[in-house]
Specification:
The chain is α/β, with parallel strands linked by helices and 439 residues long. The chain is built from 15 helices and 15 strands. The protein has 2 domains: 42-167, no CATH class; 177-438, Rossmann fold (3-Layer(aba) Sandwich), CATH 3.40.50. Strand 3 and strand 4 form a beta hairpin.
Length: 439
Amino acid sequence: MNEKRKTVIKNKIKQALIPKKLREKRAAKRVAESVRAQIADIGVLNKSLLAGENLEELEVRYQELISKKRGICVHFLFNLALGAFVQTFLIAKKNGADKDNKIHLMVPAKLDAATGEVKLPNPCVSSYFDFLMLPDKENIKFYLYILNYHLDDLDLSTWSSFAPGSIEADGSKDAYIDYRGFEAICYTDEEKRAGDEYLAKIGVTGPYISFRNRVAKGGSLGGVRNGDTSTYYKAVGYLQEQGIQCVYVGLNENENELGNGIIDASKQYDSKMDLYIHSKAEFFMGDHSGIISFAQLFNRPMILLNLPYFTMNGDAYGPTFYERDILLPEKIYDTKNKRYLTIREMLAFEMTYLEYKDLVAFYVDNGYVFEKNTEDEILGAVKEMLAKIKGTFEYSESDIALQKKYLAIMQANADKYQAKWCRASIGMEFLRNNQWLLD
C-alpha cells in the first residue's frame, strides 16, 4: 500500500473514532500553535524592532482601526512561487475579503522586518487587492506593533484560508467549481487606456494570444516541464493566418530573438503591463507553470502544455475547467519494456512518489523518458481552442466518450486518494491519436 493511500485511510479512521467537537478543538489548538511558530520564524515577533517608536500613538492608531472593523484576521502569503502567490489574491477576492469589513493582515513568507521590504514574484499584483494589509516601508512599524502587542486579539484560525492548499485539500471535489466566470481584477477606464497604449507601443494591432514556455531551471521538476519555443512556431503561423498575433510574456530569459513575427514583450518587461496583456488575450498558451495564474485572474481560456504529471499534490493549480481549458500531457516512454505508460500507470507512480523530485528521480533512474509535445500536437490544440471560442468545434460521440473515459479515470483516482488534478480536457486531436493512454 503506498503512502498516499495510508494517509487517506488513517484520516478516515480518525474521523470515525474521534468525536467531531474534540477533533475540532485539537485542530484549533494545533493551528494556533503552528501559526504562532511560523510568524515567529519570519522574524516579525520582536519588540526590539519598535525601539524608539511612540507606542502610545501606535496604540491610538490601532484602536481607531479596529473601531471601524469586525476584527483582524491573519493570513499567510506564500510569496516564493508565482502560482501560489497570485492564487492567494484570487481566492481572497472570491471569498469576499473586500466586502466583509474585516482587516485581512497578510504575513509574507519572506519579509525584511526592519525595512518592510517584501520580495514578490510580481510587485504590481498586490496593488489591485488593497483590501488586504501587506507590510511595506510606510506601514511597517504599525504592522509590527499589531503583531507584537495584539497577537492574542487576532484571529489566527484564518492563517491558510486564502492559500490554495486550503481549498484543494480534498482532491475528490472540484475546489474551483464556483469560480466559473469569475474575474479577480477589473481595470478602470484610465488603466485600460494606459494598457491599450502599451499594447499599441509593442506592436499589437488586433486580436492576440499571450504565451510563454517555461524556462526555469530550478524547482522539484527542473526542466522536465520546460517546453521549447520552436515547437510553438507552427501554431504561431496558423494563428497569424487567422489574424491573431502572438505576444510572448514574462521576464526576459531568452538570449535569442524569437522571430516568426512574435511580439516579444519580455524584451521590454513591465510588471504592470505584463499583467494587463493577459486581460485581453483570446487565450493563454504555455507550459503548466506559475505564469498561468495571470490568465486565471482574468478568467481567460488556457492551453496547458507539456504536463509531466496529472495530479497536483504539493503544487497549486488554480481554477481550470474541462469545458474551457485544454491540456496536453507529456508521454512517458519505458525504455526497458519498449512501450509508453498509460494514464493509470502514471497515476500509480504519482500516488507512490508524492514528492515530485522523488517521482522524477524514479522515472529517470528506471529508464523512463519524457517526450515533449510536438509542434503538430500544439497546432491541433490551438485549432480546437479557436473553434471552441467561436462555438464551431464539433465533438463526435466517440470524442465525448473518450473525454468521459479520461475524466472517469481521474475522478476515480481522486476519490480513492483525495488527489487533486487539473480539471481541463485533453486536446481532442491528441486524445484521438493516443487512445491507448486510457487503457
